[in-house]
Amino acid sequence: MARRRKKEAEKTKYFKEMREQAEAIPQELLKKLLRQKYHIVGKHSAVKMCQWTASTLKGEGSCYKNAFYGIQSHQCIQSTPVLLFCNHACVFCWRMMPEEGLKFSDMPKKGFSWDAPKEIVEGFVQAHRKTVSGFGGNPKTGGKVFEEANSPKHVALSLTGEPSMYPYMGELLEEFHKRGISTFLVTNGTYPNMVEKWKTLPTQLYVSLVAPNKEVYLKAIRPDSPVLWEQYLKTLEMLPELGKKTRTVLRMTLVRDVNMQPIEGYAQQILLAKPHYVEVKSMVFVGGARLKERGLSTGSMLGMEEIREYAKELAKLTGYIYAAEHAPSRIVLLCKDEKALKSRMIDFSKI
């Protein structure tokens, strides 16, 4: 009984600390995030352990980023510098959405102060170490792997939200690179004016490829404004030039009977952007995607064989090379050409 009271007191104390710290997060959302084991960093950022980090620590396999690009899952920080700020409300997204009471208008406007890049980086590293700390006594976790996990070498800025909304993203990326930490950043492409200001680019720049045309985009992605489609296209037009400076990827999330057709629309966007890589992936029926208001089900996910066939058809339409796959994640990698294929594994000595 005494132990239970102590544990409850610790939870209450921790929540109070987070409540004072995370001023931009509504009360009920904060409670939910903490229950879901998000580690809040500063006022508007967060880290959450990826299932593949835990899997690698237990010697049970790594994620697709390891298979495709050589990223070590146990040294990867899954994070976001914009915990609840996004101008999309994709039906397949796992985060809180308008039907749960979170609206676009809830995002900070004038008067909100953003945390400094250095503070976020330090907070992410500390939070990652906390997430892996419990594996130190796990009999399935080797001492070397656990030691490596405490020295993260990669950060995925993709957990939730739209990272290009953070006004100091270039400086944030620079801070990570100074520490020898590689960066993958996933943007929805609706802030081309922000991207072009970044003096430092991520190790790998992802743009989400989630609709074949504007009609599907408006219905399935539910943007804050219809003009965001045109903004997204501007970002695609920028990618060939950005691709001369860093690695570029278009990342697809396919949902049955929602955004799969016409496939020619996706092919046109790929040929416009000319990314080094295209990831063809099924949506996952988790988190907010399971809300009945979204109209999705387990049947909305594609099987691995369906992903293979879709990727092969896309390869025919674009001339891209079918390069690799990761069946547990239901994902296929397409490469632009032989050069991209041969260099897909990241050279960490250059970070």
Fold topology:
Elements: H1 2-21, H2 27-35, E1 39-41, E2 45-47, H3 51-57, H4 64-69, E3 76-80, H5 117-132, H6 143-149, E4 154-157, H7 169-178, E5 182-187, H8 192-195, E6 204-209, H9 214-221, H10 228-242, E7 247-254, H11 263-273, E8 277-282, H12 304-318, E9 321-326, E10 331-335, H13 338-342
What descriptors fit this protein?
351 residues, alpha/beta, TIM Barrel, 15% strand, 10-stranded mixed beta sheet
Quickly describe the structure.
The protein has 13 helices and ten strands.
Sheet with the most strands: spatial strand order: 1-2-3-4-5-6-7-8-10-9
Mean pLDDT: 91
Low-confidence residue ranges: none
What is the helix tally? 13
Number of structurally distinct domains = 1
Our estimate of the beta-strand percent is 5-15%
* Fourth-level CATH superfamily: Aldolase class I
> H/E series, N to C?
HHEEHHEHHEHEHEHHEHEHEEH
Helical content band: 25-40%
Describe the protein in words.
- The structure is a single chain.
- The chain has one domain: Alpha-Beta Barrel (TIM Barrel), CATH 3.20.20.
- Helix content is 38%, strand content 15%.
- The protein is built from 13 helices and ten strands.
- Helix 11 crosses helix 12.
- Strands 1-2-3-4-5-6-7-8-10-9 form a ten-stranded mixed beta sheet.
- It is an alpha/beta fold and 351 residues long.
- It starts with a helix and ends in a 9-residue tail after the last helix.
